[in-house]
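Backbone-to-sequence.
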């Protein structure tokens, strides 16, 4: 790597800074002699020091703050740390710690990261985007923070989410960080607590009407096409209705996806594929009842139906196997409060607000909790599922942890060990009745980084549902049969980079088959993906002048 920077400017640039790892030659040519200790450490020795310092931090939030600070100073060492032990570090830089970090975002804020685009900048969005220092941006992860995790409207505090999501692109699938831009579209907040917090970092206004918001988003999406023509836009943590509507608005025109809708769907589908494998059935043999009918539920139901259509059902047959129950009861054909995208899942049925009663009459083989409300899969719910199913599938996906519809302990105990269970958060292994169960985490981070790596390498012009179905199948296929027997529906997190490279290669193959790639087809897709993978290693540096000398 060559740079025109010299001396202290090198140390202040997190992309150039090697801290204590500069070689003697680099110290000489970059003017660093005397500005750093007179040693040349390896990345692994530096990692040892990071681990030592992390061990002294009392809480995960403190460890999060420490790691973000490390990123502000030394990008390579930050990613080396994350990638050295993903199972340990992903819960710190992402869920569940990120929830707490977002709640306190304005209070723990140190330094700007990503872009803040306020609705007051309407008419000049293109100019604002041009302020970003990188010219070849390939992914913008954008939120208006309408619904952060299961925590609701967090306004500018939600900026922690796009920052964290894009770190996962790199840590989980090796997408190089210089191509990634986290963005907060600031259209105000209805969160009274933040509106009155002097340290709140967003516009102090309540949210605008939907039309006004969408015209702002239209300008943003159009400006991205002009300023960053190879960029894919990842929508994250908008409210359910906005998520579904905005995806429909742009998905056939531009390279966009919504992780809450499609990524969630992909990872839950992977779990359903493996649950069917354990039972010796197919997706299209099962019946599904959702608790919650928001963006996560609709995205999953639509993708599940597409996967059942791939298995041979027609669309109405597939939709008839899926039912939903929301805050107002079972979705059925007499309901007048349903949104267009919910109607395919409202079947003929008497109105009911009794979830257990709905289970008795719909007779699902699988219940899926995406309600945001903890404890809603009660003992009666699990016992009823166990009475009508030999192996009830119980997916309690709401997060953070205390929002899970039930815990693994409850699911295994109440079903007497019969349940096939996964959650939206990580729970430890559980011992029940002499058996060890491995509750899987239906975490989107198995899917969206791999999809993004495939899009990055192939320069795909669109992100399709078929790509998410292929990613789901690829993730499901990577759980070894001995772990499936212990009820684990997802691959181990410790090996996540390898899992995602293999997943990205399968998705990339589909991109080439579908004619959506904007680069030539390679002979070996797996090797092609591996060529694009970022490695958290320092590269030899020289000044521009030194290079030309
Ligand atoms: P949303 O706000 O769009 O939808 C929530 C739905 O739950 C609505 O249909 C609402 O009517 C229903 N609901 C609320 N209270 C209820 C109750 N007491 N009983 C029955 N239904 C109730 O939210 P979204 O985006 O669909 O997310 C839902 C949950 O899924 C969140 O907690 C989120 O954390 C979780 N999620 C999990 C993921 C994963 O595990 N991979 C990924 C994305 C979301």
């Amino acid at each position: 790597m060559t740079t025109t920077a010299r001396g202290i400017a090198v140390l202040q640039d997190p992309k150039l800074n090697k801290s204590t790892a500069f070689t003697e030659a680099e110290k000489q040519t970059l003017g660093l002699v005397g500005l750093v200790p007179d040693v040349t450490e390896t990345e692994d020795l530096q990692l040892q020091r990071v681990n030592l310092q992390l061990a002294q931090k009392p809480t995960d939030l403190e460890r999060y703050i420490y790691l973000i600070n490390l990123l502000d100073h030394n990008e390579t060492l930050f990613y080396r740390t994350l990638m050295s032990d993903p199972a340990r570090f992903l819960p710190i830089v992402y869920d569940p710690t990120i929830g707490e970090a977002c709640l306190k975002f304005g209070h723990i804020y140190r330094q700007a990261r990503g872009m803040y685009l306020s609705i007051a900048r309407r008419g000049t969005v293109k100019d604002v985007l041009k302020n970003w220092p990188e010219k070849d941006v390939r992914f913008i992860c954008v939120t208006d923070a309408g619904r952060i995790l299961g925590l609701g409207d967090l306004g500018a505090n939600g900026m922690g989410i796009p920052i964290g999501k894009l770190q996962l692109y790199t840590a989980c699938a090796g997408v190089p960080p210089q191509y990634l831009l986290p963005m907060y579209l600031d259209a105000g907040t209805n969160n009274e607590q933040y509106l009155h917090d002097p340290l709140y970092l967003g516009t102090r206004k309540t949210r605008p009407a939907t039309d006004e918001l969408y015209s702002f988003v239209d300008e943003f999406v159009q400006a991205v096409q002009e300023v960053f023509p190879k960029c894919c836009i990842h929508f994250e943590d908008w409210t359910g209705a906005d998520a579904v509507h905005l995806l429909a608005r742009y998905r056939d025109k531009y390279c966009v996806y919504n992780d809450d809708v499609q990524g969630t769907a992909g990872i839950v589908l992977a779990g359903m594929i493996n649950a069917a494998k354990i039972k010796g059935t197919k997706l299209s043999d099962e019946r599904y009842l959702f608790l919650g009918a928001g963006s996560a539920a609709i995205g999953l139901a639509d993708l599940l139906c597409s996967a059942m259509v791939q298995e041979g059902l027609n669309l109405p047959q597939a939709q008839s196997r899926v039912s939903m129950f929301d805050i107002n009861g079972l979705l059925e054909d007499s309901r007048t409060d349903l949104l267009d995208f919910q109607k395919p899942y409202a079947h003929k049925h008497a109105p009911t607000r009794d979830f257990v009663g709905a289970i008795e009459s719909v007779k699902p083989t699988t219940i899926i909790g995406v309600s945001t409300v903890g404890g809603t899969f009660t003992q009666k719910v699990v016992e009823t599922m166990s009475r009508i199913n030999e192996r009830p599938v119980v997916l309690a996906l709401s997060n953070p942890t205390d929002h899970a519809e039930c815990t693994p302990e409850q699911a295994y105990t109440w079903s007497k060990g019969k349940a096939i269970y996964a959650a939206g958060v990580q729970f430890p292994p559980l011992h029940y009745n002499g058996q060890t169960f491995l509750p899987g985490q239906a975490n989107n981070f198995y899917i969206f980084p791999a999809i993004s790596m495939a899009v990055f390498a192939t320069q795909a012009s669109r992100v399709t549902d078929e790509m998410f179905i292929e990613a789901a199948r690829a993730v499901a296929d990577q759980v070894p049969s001995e772990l499936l027997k212990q009820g684990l529906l997802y691959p181990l997190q410790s090996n996540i980079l390898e899992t995602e490279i293999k997943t990205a290669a399968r998705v990339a193959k589909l991109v080439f088959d579908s004619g959506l790639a904007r680069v030539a087809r390679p002979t070996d897709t797996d090797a092609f993906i591996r060529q694009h993978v970022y490695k958290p290693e320092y590269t030899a540096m020289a000044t521009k002048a030194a290079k030309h000398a």
